[in-house]
Amino acid sequence: MKRLLFTLACATAIFTSHPAFAGSGLPDTDSLMHFRFDGTDREYRLAIPDSLDESRPLVIMMHGYGGKADPDRFGMKQAALKHGFAICFPQGERDTTGKTGWNIGYPAQKGMKTDDVEFISSLAEHIVSEYNLNPDNVFCSGYSNGGDLCYLIADRKPDEFAALASISGLTMKWVLNSYESTKQIPFIEFHGTADKTSRWGGDPDNTGGWGEYISVPLAVGYRAAVNRCTHEVTETRPAEENGVQVIVHKYTGGPEGNDVWLYEVIGGTHSLYTSGLELGEEIMNFFNRYLTRPEN
């Protein structure tokens, strides 16, 4: 993706001539858009702020298993536009059970042919080219099944994204055994210790039916090791009014400055809606740390 040229001079021409900007202005998530990938018509929603950050960044936000492209979940759209980021919400395909999602190798996804890592990469490249965004400032986030895909992207496409953010995601055992991570990428994970779907302690025996996966601390620790982080800073935040406690583990000190953060939500469930965290804001603040700024 980074082979694309970032030509800021042609931005005015694109925004005035492209049909997506006619009439009501910039594209918003009210309408489904379409992208042809691997012979299939894929859907997504896209919003571009009236005033893009000078870095012209893009966030891809992936929904959970059985979900849909939902711009309002976790406040991601509002936070992205506030920070001057374009944001895309792609729609996952249906598996053999009829559930929508991202192909991460669940037992229910057996026989699913979609390569969703390639799809997300290709979709991001298409949007960057179509709307003259910066290929060095493409970020990816996902919830649950979408978070699982973030871990796989970290192994397969770390050079195509500036940073990754997972909400209640996990690392499948087969992913850990199949790929040897060699490239660093900033990573942040939000996870509840009482998550009964994507268990904090992992599920090495596949008792939950999702397949075998490792514990959250081990998965995040592996990403910190890949980034060659040398320090851990622990921040215990004041308890929320609902009593929920959040401990932020920040793994820092890597040679390229690529941090790995883990938000340990004590007693938090899979959705994290009751955590008191403004997830969209937390994610965008993390992404802002890794923006490539244009030279003046």
Can you offer a commentary on this structure?
The structure is a single chain. This protein has 296 residues and is of the alpha/beta class. It has a single domain (8-288), classed as 3-Layer(aba) Sandwich (Rossmann fold). It is built from seven helices and twelve strands. The chain has helices at 11-17, 76-82, 116-130, 145-156, 173-178, 216-226, 279-288; strands at residues 33-37, 40-47, 58-62, 86-90, 93-94, 100-101, 138-143, 164-167, 187-192, 231-236, 245-252, 260-266. The strands form two sheets. Strands 1-2-4-3-7-8-9-12-11-10 form a ten-stranded mixed beta sheet, with helices on both faces. The longest helix is centred in the middle third of the chain and has 15 residues, at 116-130. The radius of gyration is 19 Å and the shape is globular. The two termini are 23 Å apart.
Unreliable spans are 1-24
Q: What is the end-to-end distance?
A: 23 Å
Structural class: alpha/beta
What proportion strand? Answer: 15-25%
The CATH topology label is Rossmann fold
Quaternary state of this entry equals: single chain
User: How many domain regions?
Assistant: 1
CATH class: Alpha Beta
Per the principal axes of the C-alpha atoms, what is the gross shape?
Answer: globular
Number of alpha- plus pi-helical segments: 7
* Proper CATH architecture: 3-Layer(aba) Sandwich
Q: What is the H/E order?
A: HEEEHEEEHEHEHEHEEEH
Mean pLDDT: 90
Number of strands: 12
What is the helix fraction of residues, given as a range?
10-25%
Find the CATH superfamily: Alpha/Beta hydrolase fold, catalytic domain
